[in-house]
Amino acid sequence: MLFIHRDSISKIGLSLIAIGIGFTIIGVVLTLAAFGITFGTSFLIVMGLFLVIYGMTFVITINKKVNFRLLLAQRMLSWLLILGLISFIWIEALILQSQKSDENVKVKYAVVLGAGIQGEEPSSTLKRRLDKSIEYLNKNPNTQIVASGGYGKGATVSEAEVMKRYFQAHGIDESRIIKEERSTTSDENLKYTKELLISLNGEEIKSILIITSEYHMFRAKYMASRYYSEVYGICSETPTTVMINYAIREYMAVFKMLILDTLQ
Question: DSSP assignment, residue 141?
């Protein structure tokens, strides 16, 4: 039977457990009542459970062997938490730093990255990207736009086709729209766009303007630098109500991308 000493250490543990339970409850409530299973709600639940387990390592018992094992676990989890916080702050800083739009840059080609469709209509995120693209195209009549996005699971129409229809419905001439329908990931958006532009021009295209959501711009530019020597970007805005979910999702995506690039 455990005997908990009522000292400052156990109070820290109890506080962590209480915070962890709070995070878990909030994550479960948001999952069931509002957003379903998303990166944001999953993160809250996982973080809550982590804090509960972490708080339990601050317990002091009358068994010295148990105390030693709890101390080892506490130190390991402390380092894991510190490293996680450092990586989160660093990556989110990179994401924020990349959100400045190059509104005045003049390019021959711009590419709008796919963001999902609903039936044969653009998702709300994709619509915001398309509206931002239309703003730029109206100001720059010599620029052509690549609508980049392939076929989702069970889809009968590509994202690129849906984007093309939206552009045309909003006054963009068909001659200015290029469809790229092979891609299913952000990296493929940029890779296949490059291949398509080379086939159209017979030579390398050095510069590209990317139009995507602000939270996605750092990763998009990073990947685009593999294929283009000059990369510019224009950001579409994301509602604050869903930004936390996207910020957490993008953190994990950027973290994975940087780790894989480091290992290669």
Answer: T
Q: What does the chain come to in residues?
A: 264
**Max CA distance (Å), the chain:** 78
CA–CA gap between residue 71 and residue 65 (Å, rounded):
10
pLDDT along the chain (264 residues), means of 10: 47 90 91 78 90 90 85 93 93 91 92 92 95 96 95 88 96 96 93 94 91 95 94 92 82 89 81
Looking from the CA of 43 toward its CB, the CA atoms found within 13 Å total 15
Q: How would you class 210 by CB atoms within 10 Å of its CB: exposed for 0-12, middle for 13-18, buried for 19 or more?
A: buried
What pLDDT, on the 0 to 100 scale, is given for residue 228?
93
Residue 117 φ then ψ, to 5°:
-130, 160
Write down the pTM of the prediction: 0.81
What is the DSSP secondary structure assignment for residue 2, as one 8-state letter?
Answer: -
CATH code, residues 109-239: 3.40.50.620
Instruction: Say how far residue 235 (Cα) sits from the centre of its chain.
Output: 13
Residue 211's beta-bridge partner residues? 112, 234
Q: Quick one: pLDDT at residue 246? A: 85
- Contact indicator for 167, 147 with CB cutoff of 8 Å: yes
Phi, psi for 226 (deg, rounded to 5): -75, -25
Q: Helix, strand, or coil here: 57?
A: coil
User: d(Cα 90, Cα 94) in Å, to the nearest integer?
Assistant: 6
Domain boundaries, the chain: 8-97, 109-239
Residue with tokens 């109070």: 11
